Amino acid sequence: MEFNRVTLDIEDRVAILRFNDPEALNAIGVDMLEGLAEALAEVQSKKNAVRCLVITGSGRGFCSGANLSDRGGKKRGSKGGGSGGSLRSSYHPLFFALRDLEMPIVTAVNGAAAGVGMSFALFGDIVCASKDAFFLQAFARIGLVPDGGATFMLPRMIGWGRAVELSLLAERLYAEKACEWGIVNRVFEDNDQLMAGALEVARKLANGPRSLALMRKAYWSTWSNSYEQQLELEAQLQNQAGQTKDNAEGVAAFLEKREAIFKGE
């Protein structure tokens, strides 16, 4: 399926969403924002039976941030509300949709993940990257502040000092160092190996139990819950998981000493 500067392929319950403006290193403009929203709606549609989402980029880059030459990319005040107007109206709904997606997300970072593109990369529950890929908090280079949730996610992922350093100095963080810091889960030699490896992970997740979506909910909630609230949420989610067909299948497979066949139900 093709949308505005975005493509979506669905096979074996895995959806591959690609930023698709390679001449601009997949910088995000108004067209791509519309395409992303439409593609995510397809991913969420039950008729497509998607159970894992892979996000990557076409060509040499993952996503180089907002397209500053595109009037709609992230033009400050483009829809009112000052400099954050377009963030509130266009970007925030996308990030909320990704946060609430009821399936695992794998990001395959095949090149530059800069600015808000880095925020999209960090949304992977499993972040895969090619050896030459890099992450860049580019905002200081153009006199802006980090957005896309970067100031929320980075300190929690890599610690205060490293997060502030990345933002203030706006230096490239290459994949291997990002892996050492805990931003990246798996590093691959080149982009061919990257996609093969990311799809292997995605297919494993797509064949996993319904409880994977509940795990995502639990981990996202832990950043705002107290310990007591998190314990209660775990109990609630465990009740839901325990009522699924996948739980019954998992227990039966364990007792019968065979591999479980999960259906996401």
Summarize it:
With 265 residues, the protein is of the alpha/beta class. The protein has helices spanning 30-44, 85-99, 116-122, 150-158, 160-169, 175-181, 191-206, 211-221, 227-242, 245-256, and strands spanning 2-3, 6-11, 14-19, 52-57, 105-109, 112-114, 126-130, 134-136, 173-174, 186-188. A 7-stranded mixed β-sheet has the order 1-2-3-4-5-7-10, with helices on both faces.
Write the SSE topology.
Blueprint: E1 2-3, E2 6-11, E3 14-19, H1 30-44, E4 52-57, H2 85-99, E5 105-109, E6 112-114, H3 116-122, E7 126-130, E8 134-136, H4 150-158, H5 160-169, E9 173-174, H6 175-181, E10 186-188, H7 191-206, H8 211-221, H9 227-242, H10 245-256
Parallel strand pairs: 3-4, 4-5, 5-7, 6-8, 7-10
Antiparallel strand pairs: 1-2, 2-3, 8-9
CATH topology of the largest domain: 2-enoyl-CoA Hydratase, Chain A, domain 1
Q: Taking strands numbered 1, 2, ... along the chain, how are they ordered across the largest sheet?
A: 1-2-3-4-5-7-10
What is the second-level CATH architecture of the largest domain? Alpha-Beta Complex
Gyration radius from CA atoms, angstroms: 19 Å
Low-confidence stretches: 72-79
Helix content: 40-55%
Provide the structure class: alpha/beta
Averaged pLDDT, please?
Answer: 94
- The succession of helices and strands, N to C, reads EEEHEHEEHEEHHEHEHHHH
Oligomer: single chain
Q: What percentage of amino acids are in beta strands?
A: 15-25%
| Shape descriptor | globular
CATH class assignment of the largest domain: Alpha Beta
What's the β-strand tally? 10
Measured between the Cα atoms of the first and last residue, the distance is 26 Å
